[in-house]
Amino acid sequence: MSAFRRAGTADMGTRPGLHGQTLVSMGLVDLDRILGGGLPLSSVLLVLEDPYSGQHLNLMRYFMAEGVACRQKVMWLSASPPAGGPGAFLPAEASASQSSSDDAAAEKEQPELRIAWQYRKYIKDEPQQQPQRAQSAASMSGRSGASASTTTGAKSSFARAGAAVAAGVGREWCHSYDLTRPIGEEALRGAALEVAECSGPAAYAAADERAGAFLSSLAPSAPDHATAVAAPGSAAAVLAAAAAARRGPEPVGRLVIESAGSLGWWARGGSGCSSSLGLGSLQAQGEGARQQQEVELLRLLYNVRQRALRARCAVMVTVPAGLLSAGTASRLPHLADSVLGLDPLSDDSQLHRLLPDPASAVALLSVRKLCSAGMLGPRTCDGVLHVVRHKRRRLGLSVVEVDPDAEERLAEATARAQEAYMKGGPRGAAGAAGVVAAKTASKSTAALLCGGPPAPGGGSKALDF
Fold it and tell me: Is residue 261 part of a domain?
């Protein structure tokens, strides 16, 4: 008898990955691409928060909204749930018009993406065809033109599909969401979403209990003893495989623990007054109480990871590492399979000035560890540092690239400042700048535009308006 077994029905919202893993989508195409196609089940993703931008909340919104859209079980453990509930926190799916506009924009940018954008300025546009050639091309038969357009459209569609397959992400794999529109309570009426508040002295114990019960409910069904000891290819093994196929897909869940280790887990409730009282009590209790709380945090993450190994669930934990001690912060990555770090990106930083389209850059995402279950060595990512771009309706992640034109402009400005300093010193440079400012302040906008840049040294030009 053959030992071949037909694969059962795939669970909704999952796809097979490498090394026997089952992946779930993060809800964001760029993040799925960074993680290698998605987040494996029975794994823990640790996100080190950025206290300034708060982009970890958007990553949580994507992750939980994707679980709701795929009809998976979702549990959210938070010290301060939003006042409007999950219906006001989770984003709604993007409309068909927005998705089509995104596809059109991606198709328009596709030729530019084939070449590194740093070298665009060296590419010269092809000369336009002659009118005679255009007329001769327009006089061709409609059938040949239709076939050519069909062939071109097929090639472009196949190219987009091939790029999606190469990236490990397809449009049917991940939903599109609009961060500006909440999902609403009516859309969550039939969803298996559970929100639990964990705050106060017993917050970590309550979170451990709720997470343990949730992960235990997602444990895969174990075969009976007769099936386990049956030889491959025997009648008992074949009957057991057929019974497993008839059972259908098993439930899949997602567990989210928000800001574990923050001051909100100490205080009772989520108001600012209670948080200040929790901080005051923490300072009054001393260093020993803080160390005890960090020990409870490490115990919670350890228990969650051990239980997740035996459950069909993907876990996402966000931690404000800046509030923890150096020893605890160094132990956290060892309790997770994948680690992502969010770093602030200030407007006056040098990197922000050198980035292309700096207005949309809000934070930096560093890949510090990737899940390597079933592999002999650790996985490496194509790009370690990425830029988080907030594009009003959605987030975008791209590898850090420096604009060469911005670097040249910055170098020229620095050279001019040094030249002005060497000629007249600080007083001379300041005096010249004051004269130019006073002269340009008394002119109209039209005069400034027609007159061009001011003369060096603040003097008058031959053609000065």
Answer: yes
Q: In terms of domains, do 176 and 312 share one?
A: yes
- Is residue 308 domain-resident? yes
Cα–Cα nearest to 13, from 42, 31, 39: 39
Q: What angle do CA 42, 170, 193 make, to 5 degrees?
A: 45
Q: What is the pLDDT of residues 128-182, one digit of tens each?
A: 444 444 444 444 444 444 444 444 444 444 444 444 444 444 445 788 999 999 9
* 90 within 8 A of 61, measured Cβ to Cβ: yes
Q: Is the dihedral of CA 268, 321, 332, 395 positive or negative?
A: positive
* 321/449 same-domain check: no
Q: How many Cβ atoms are within 10 Å of 428's Cβ, its own excluded?
A: 14
pLDDT confidence of 456, banded at 50, 70, 90?
low
pLDDT in tens, 7-22: 555 677 888 887 788 9
Query: CB burial class (10 A; 0-12, 13-18, 19+) of residue 342?
Result: buried
φ/ψ of 299, rounded to 5, equals -65, -40
Rounded Cα distance, 285 and 125, in Å = 70
- In this structure, are 297 and 420 located in the same domain? no
Its domain, for residue 363, covers: 14-96+170-221+250-402
The pTM is what?
A: 0.69
